[in-house]
Design goal:
single chain; GTP Cyclohydrolase I, domain 2; five-stranded mixed beta sheet; binds the ligand Nc1nc2c(c(=O)[nH]1)N=C([C@H](O)[C@@H](O)CO)CN2
Length: 123
């Protein structure tokens, strides 16, 4: 399976378990790796055959805007289920990081993997 990716998407989010975190915007960083059969758009040269990384990034931005998440786990799971459902992504790896959340660390967060990595498009 091929990959379409979005790396280092930096967003401002309402996220965290503490009261003070519910009142502020914090920087988060998101990486997406999404399975796709890129032979099909490579042959057609048509954007409609792609897993459009711009569409994926916009969906993530919409999920982050306007919702408070307690946990990075909840946000990562929401991103994975939404992209799989809306864009027919068969396999996805989502990383959600909070830079600066733990003193002495450059970033903390979670990485999750959902779906079937062995998936092949039927030809
Ligand atoms: N596994 C997790 N651990 C922690 C989370 C989290 O979302 N998942 N969140 C916090 C706090 O919100 C923290 O980021 C504030 O600095 C602590 N641990």
């Amino acid at each position: 399976m091929d990959i379409v990716y979005v790396r280092d998407l930096k967003l401002d989010a309402r996220i965290g378990i503490y009261e003070w975190e519910k009142r502020i915007l914090q920087k988060i960083r998101i990486d997406l790796e999404m399975g796709w059969d890129n032979r099909i758009p490579a042959a057609s040269d048509a954007i409609n055959d792609t897993l459009n990384y711009k569409t994926a990034a916009k969906l993530v931005m919409q999920l982050v805007e306007g919702t408070h998440y307690e946990l990075v786990e909840r946000l990562a799971e929401t991103i994975a289920t939404t992209l799989m459902r809306e864009l027919n992504v068969p396999w996805i790896q989502v990383t959600v990081g909070k830079p600066g959340a733990v003193r002495g660390s450059s970033e903390v967060g979670v990485k999750i993997e959902r779906g079937n990595r062995q998936w092949q498009a039927s030809t």
